[in-house]
Design brief:
By secondary structure, the protein is mostly helical. The protein contains 8 helices and no strands. The two termini are 34 Å apart.
Length: 203
C-alpha cells in the first residue's frame, strides 16, 4: 500500500515539473522592463539593436527586438497582451514553451528582416508585438488543425477577445507600426501551430 502511494507521488511531481509556472512569463516580461529601464537611464540607445531589414548588421536584432520598446506606453501595451496569449501557449506547450517561443522569435524575426520597410537603410523594427502575433497565430493554428473540442473552444475564446489584432497585419502608412512584424509573426505562429497539431495527431 505505502509503495503504491510513493509511486503516485513521484509521478505527480514529475508531471508538475513538465509544465513551467506563470513565473516564466513574468521572467520574460521582466527582461523587457529591465532593458527599457536601462535604456531610459543611460545613453546606450539600445533600440538601435533591433531588426534592420536586409542589412547584415541588423540580423542580431532578430533575437534582441522582442525585448526592445520605443516607449513605456509601447511596453505596457505589449505586456498586457503578452501575458494573455503567452499564458495560453504556456499551458498548451508545457516544457516546450521556451523552445516554441524561441522558434517564433527566430522565424518571425527573419520574416521581418526580409519584408520589413527600410527606406533609409537604417530603419529599426523593435517590440514584442511580432512574438505576440506569433502566439496569436499559434493558438489559431492549433485550433484549426488540432481537431479537438478543447482547442476549438480555446480558438473561439481567443479569437473573440483578440480578434481585432488581425487588422494589425494589414499594410499601414504609419511609420511607427511594424505591420510587417505582425504579419510575419502571425504566419510563423500559424505554421508552427499547424505543425504541432499534425505532429500530435500522428503521434
Amino acid at each position: 500500500m505505502s509503495r503504491e502511494v510513493a509511486i503516485e507521488v513521484r509521478a505527480a511531481k514529475r508531471k508538475s515539473a513538465d509544465r513551467p509556472g506563470f513565473g516564466l512569463l513574468l521572467g520574460l516580461v521582466a527582461i523587457a522592463w529591465v532593458v527599457e529601464l536601462l535604456d531610459r537611464l543611460t545613453a546606450l540607445n539600445l533600440d538601435r539593436y533591433g531588426i534592420v531589414p536586409r542589412e547584415v548588421s541588423g540580423l542580431p536584432g532578430i533575437l534582441f527586438s522582442p525585448w526592445l520598446h520605443a516607449s513605456w506606453g509601447h511596453l505596457i501595451a505589449n505586456t498586457l497582451t503578452f501575458f494573455g496569449l503567452g499564458f495560453v501557449v504556456l499551458m498548451a506547450e508545457g516544457r516546450r514553451f521556451l523552445s516554441t517561443t524561441l522558434a517564433l522569435v527566430v522565424v518571425c524575426g527573419l520574416g521581418t528582416w526580409v519584408i520589413g520597410r527600410n527606406p533609409d537603410g537604417n530603419t529599426v523594427h523593435i517590440g514584442a508585438s511580432g512574438l505576440i502575433y506569433g502566439y496569436f497565430g499559434y493558438i489559431l493554428g492549433r485550433a484549426i488543425w488540432e481537431r479537438r473540442a478543447s482547442w476549438i473552444v480555446i480558438g473561439i475564446v481567443v479569437g473573440t477577445i483578440y480578434g481585432g489584432m488581425i487588422w494589425g497585419v494589414l499594410p499601414s502608412t504609419k511609420t511607427f507600426v511594424s505591420w510587417e512584424g505582425h504579419l510575419a509573426g502571425l504566419l510563423a505562429g500559424g505554421w508552427l501551430g499547424r505543425g504541432h497539431a499534425i505532429g500530435r495527431r500522428k503521434g
